[in-house]
Every structure is written in C-alpha cells, then in structure tokens.
Amino acid sequence: MLLRRLDLPYETTKLMRFIKELSKQPQTDLFQQDTSWNTNPRSGPVPLPPGRDRGRLKTTIIGGGAAGFFLAINLKEMVPEMEVCIVERSSRVLRKVELSGGGRCNLTNTFDDVNDLSTVYPRGHRLLKRLFKGFGHQDTCDWFERHGVSLMTQPDHRVFPASQDSHTIIDCFMKEAQRLGVRVVTHSERYEAPTFTAVCTGGSPKREGLKWLEDMGHEIVDPVPSLFTLNIDNKALRSLMGTAVENVTAYIPGHKYRSDGALLITHWGLSGPAILKLSSHEARTLHDNNYRLPLCINWVGVGDVRDELQHIIYNNPQKQLHNYRPFDLPQRLWDYLLTQMFKGDTNRTWKSLNAKEINRMANMLTNDEYQITGKGAFKEEFVTCGGIALKSINPSTLESRHVPGMYFAGEVLDIDGITGGFNFQAAWTTAHTVACAIKERVREKK
Fold this sequence. Notes:
- By secondary structure, the protein is an alpha+beta fold.
- Helices cover 33% and strands 21% of the residues.
- It contains 14 helices and 19 strands.
- It has helices spanning 12-24, 66-78, 95-103, 125-131, 137-146, 167-180, 211-214, 235-238, 273-281, 283-288, 306-315, 331-342, 355-366, 422-445; strands at 35-40, 44-50, 58-62, 83-88, 108-109, 151-153, 158-161, 183-186, 191-193, 196-199, 220-226, 230-232, 244-251, 259-265, 269-271, 294-298, 368-375, 383-388, 406-408.
- It has a six-stranded antiparallel barrel. A five-stranded parallel sheet has the order 8-4-3-10-19, with helices on one face.
- A hairpin with a 4-residue loop joins strand 6 (151-153) and strand 7 (158-161).
- Helix 2 packs parallel to helix 6.
- Residues 1-42 and 47-52 have low confidence and may be disordered.
C-alpha cells in the first residue's frame, strides 16, 4: 500500500522560523536543507527538527490532486535519483479527477476553436500562452497515450479517456507513482522536507486556507467561486425546466463580455455552457454584488432580427404566431415568449403585428432580461478564481519569488478556465513546467 497514517502536533511558529532562515541562505545551500514536516489543514506544512541524513535530493509535493501526481511522475521520470513524496491532508487522493466530467474525466481540449486564450482562461491566459509552448494540449495527449491511456475526442473538442471512465486516469497515476517509487501519504502525516517543495493544494474556497503562504510573503488574490449555475426567481421561466436552447448569448447589462453557447433551463434557473462561461468571466462581478444582478439573454444569438421578422411576415402572413417559430426556437420557449409579449393572445397572425409590436418582439428575442437571485452549483467542476498572485512567482519556472526552492502548480495559482478540459490542461502544463524547472536546478548543481 502507498498510504500510511501518522498523526503529529501542529507547530506553526516553527514553519515561519524555518522559512525565514531558508530564504536567507544562498541558492547553493538549498540542497543541504533536511527537515521533517507534517501537514496542518489550517496553517499548512509545519517543520520539525532537522534530521541527520543530508545530501539526498528530495521533493515534497503538497497536495494529492491532478497537478501533484502529474508533477511527481514527471519529476521522477526526469530525475530518477530524486526522492519524491506526495502529501495529501485528506483521506483520498485524486478526488477531483474522479468526479470531473461526470465521472469521465475531461482531461484536456483540442483548442481547435480557440483563437484567443483569454476566451477560455479569464485569469492566467498570458502566463499559459508562454507555458503552452513548452507543454501544450498535444503534449498532454501524447503523454497519456504513451502511458497506456487511449483517448477519444468529442465533436465539441473535449478530450476524454476512451474508456469514458475517470478511474482510467487514476489507475494510470497510481500505477506510475508506485512503479517509480513515489511516496504517497495522507492525513496529517510526517514526511521529510526537502530540497524542493511544490505546492499543489488546489483552489481554496476561503482566503484563510492560503494564509500560511501569505505569511511567507506571497500576495494572495482573494478566492471566489467560478463555474456555477444561476438562480432565477421566475416561476414561468422555470416551468420550462429541461428546455435546451442552442446558440444563445448571455451577458450582464453594462459589461462588455458576451457568453455564447447552449443554455439549459432548470428548476432553479439557468445552466449550460453559456451560463457557466459567463459565471467564470464575471466571477468577481457576481461575487461583489452578492449574486444579485440583472441578466440579459439573446435567445437567437443574432444582433438584429427585424429583417428576419419582416421576412416571416411577408412569406407567412396568415400563419398564427405560435405555429411558426423563428430561428427554430424550441416550441415551449416560443410559446412562453409569446405569452410574455402578448399576455396570452397567441392566436394572432403574423401580418397583424404592427411596427411597435415587431420592435417588442425583436427586443424580447435579443434582450430578454431577468434578475439573478443567487448562484447554484455545477457538480462536475469545483473551480475558484484567485490564489497565489502571478507576480509572486517566476513566470518561467513557477518558483516562488519569496521562498527559494518552493514552486506552485495547478489551481492554487491565480489561473482558472471555463469548462471543457481547460482547467486540467492548466494543471498538466504548470506541473510539467515545475518538474522541468527542478530538473534544471539539479542539473546545474551537478
């Protein structure tokens, strides 16, 4: 078994003394550091007195998630003599990998439809543009296939294991970690602190979870939720639950960002890719307004529909409004919109519409406004924006600017993406970047 449990006391003040002394020492002395650590879920890793065995190369990875395992495996492959230990404070590792993509693990995206990274990474796109040159989505696909995982790509460009089972990825990681001799420990377990430390703890829902890193000098961007559904207190709309609409545009009035894609009406409000993308790009705006803001929906994804409506009137003058759906809208949605526009008088013909009514219909189709009353949950993703500010790290190596020998990978950084495999790709890329950086440090010291 890879997992062993050892409980230790929490000693927060010793961490600060250790970090203070470590940061004073020159880079060449980093390889002489040898300290025992444990994990405190409130204040982070805590040092204990130095051990006797010096001179070994050791890396401790704090966090047993996607980034942590990917970093450990790549580092052991690059530097076989390195002792690598993954420490996870909870009882289970790779939990998010197991649940992602509805249990199928959407591990990356082909990026075929992505012309600007900022559209899929609201935060961190500039850094990732640099890092993707060293390890991008195709490198990810090659890596998994090289390690025995067959992949499949959906028409929407999302990439999954061919088995459609996230346990294929988990089994791959666990098998490779065991084969390479990576130690994996859980709970508040004792482990030897290292030549290098990699923080891969994932996103923290509250700033307090990052305080131990802030106390070391790192700037923290307040974490707030990202990727969530929206609550809409409108019974008539919610009565359409289960209705999916293709190619809508959702936006918050007065804001530039427009989110395109499919939309799903639920029993609590709105969901679907268009809403999830909007929640990601507008995460801070929504949070700062306590998730109480107006929301506009363009049901047809077209700016000016008046010409199309005039065309319908000219070609179908005698048809009743409810019998001819413009833009192939779902019948239930069209009936609902007609009821909102004409208060139930839906038996009118198209030719009976006057200019004012055509304008009202055009506005309803392209600028239908609702009131957001809260946020829901998107159970396939657990994403926060915020974390370690990117100005606190070296953009080429992801090493801390405040603590030599400490690196960051994954969602603990102020990097997050929309749904579709983009967050996992950021995890693979940042983890691989750190592994390469540590390998170069080792090579330089030889």
